[in-house]
Amino acid sequence: MIQLAPLSGGIFLGWSLGANNGANVFGTAVASRIVSFQRAALLCGAAIILGALLQGQAGIDTYSRLFPGDSMKLLLITSAVAAITMTGMTLLHLPVSTSQAIVGAICGIGLATESMQWHLLTRIVICWLVTPVGAIGIAWLIYVLLGAFFKHIPMSMLTRDKIIWSGLIIVGTYGAYALGANNVANATGIFSGRIAHLTDRHLTLVGGLAIALGVATFSKRIMHAVGSGIMPLDGFTSLVAVLAMSITVHIFAMIGVPVSSSQAIVGAIIGIGINKGIWAVKLKPLRNIAIGWLMTPIISLILAAAAYAVFV
Amino acid sequence: MFFISKQKQIELELSRYYEKVNACLTAFHDGIRQYCQKPDQDRLRENFQAVHKHESRADDLRREIEVIMYSKSVFPESRGDILSLLEAVDKVPNTTEWVMNMILTHNIIIPETLSSDILELVEVCYLCVRALLDSAEKLFTDFTNATVAIGRVDELETEADHLEFRLYEQIFKKEPSLDPMHKILLRELVRNIAAISDRAENAGDLIRIIVAKRKT
Fold it and tell me: How many structural domains does chain A have?
């Protein structure tokens, strides 16, 4: 039972991830009353668990290789530091990425134990940088293609609305699948091969359930608050943003590098902004996002190294 | 399949509603024309009954559409837009009925010297509402081009405004023989006829917003 204690930090991370990121995939649909929160949470939760089980293994392998050592104490420090960073940043109202919090903590331990996997870290950081840029490009392309479809094919406004709003539910479910596949490693990746009797299949299930629980229990308020972010989104732009985010996150799930769905959706919204006129993008929230992204891994790294020095 | 049939049902009901508004407007147009040519109160009453019948039927259809809209078969955004548009368009038949009623109850006689200009104003308002209805129907066949006819609505509304002011001048400056009360009644009549194009323009503005909201 004691061996399972560090897992509680991972479960908390998964729960927090679900609570914060559920709105990225179903926020507009719920806020616009296209689908009830209960139904969205059910769809989202099922898709997250499915994504985690079917395609979460690659990310788990990456974190398993990145994490130094096998000690329960190190696992506990890493997951606790990532959880504390997440909570602190959230309390400061700064956007936070679970991937960056956990990787920052792993790096803190890696530096302290002088066992950093630099090549893996480089690969992860490159993926973090490519995430928003890729999402910008994908969103730009989807916007142009879908925009041309709606512009040049004569249809009733009701048909158009039906395509967009139904599409938002389908794309939201796909986004939840991609989120589960990509982000399950953030919750339970570091425990792979380090806890007796727990296989990777168990870890993907536990991680998926934790994320789904976060969506079900704590994402309602965030979902209803959607739309006040960096650019006001209508049905069409939400569809484009969620689809671009989902494709981006899914690609990195297949590569095996957990990335931030929030970074992907921000990139997607900028891609839409380039089409609509960049003036539509608000700069102040973007600045907060940039600060959050820079600070999260640094704080997490410092805290983990400090915790190692104190407790180990 | 259930969902598709619901949408078709709404589009069909809306099409029937626009037909009724058009029928109401045609009856109004014919009624005023006949009254200007021959001020026969009995004939006008018959035409008023026709306008009233079409207006009532349009109201019934509007209520039916509202009920269908709230049966959760339409997305909230579409529902809000369509109901606002219906409310705006509905002011057109209401105004035509009010004008006919006013002539009847106030026993307004249209002087021969003014009849051609009043008829011209009615004609312009009629065309203005027809352009609005074309545009409103386009929302359900080719919504991106629905605003094409709205430009025509604006033009006709401006023309109606010019005619309205010209008629005021005629009533108060060029008709010295008219009783002051008669002049005031005629001014009210002209104002209410011109209001038809104003209502059409307001509904047209809503169509513009509905399309702009969905512009990609």
Answer: 1
The tens digit of pLDDT for each residue in B114-150 reads 999 999 999 999 999 999 999 999 999 999 999 999 9
Share of chain A above pLDDT 70, in %: 96
What residue ranges in B85-204 does DSSP mark as E strands? none
- B156 pLDDT band, cuts 50/70/90, is very high
Residues of A in contact with B76 (CB under 8 A): 32-34
Q: What is the number of other CB atoms lying within 10 angstroms of the CB of residue A128?
A: 21
Whether residue A160 and residue B10 make contact (CB cut-off 8 A), yes or no, is no
Q: What is the CATH number of the domain that holds B29?
A: 1.20.58.220
ipTM computed for the complex: 0.84
Using a CB-CB cut-off of 8 Å, the residues of chain B touching A161 are 75, 77-78, 214
A114-121, long-range: CB within 8 Å, 24+ apart, which pairs? A115/A68, A115/A69, A116/A68, A117/A65, A117/A66, A117/A68, A120/A62, A120/A65, A120/A66, A121/A66
For residue B97, the distance in angstroms to the closest alpha carbon of chain A comes to: 31
For chain B, how many residues are written? Answer: 216
- What local confidence, expressed as pLDDT, does residue B1 receive? 45
How many structural domains does chain B have? 1
Residue A227 reports pLDDT greater than 60: no
Identify the domain containing residue B195 by its residue range: 2-213
End-to-end CA distance of chain B: 28
Could you tell me the residue range of the domain that residue A7 belongs to? 2-311
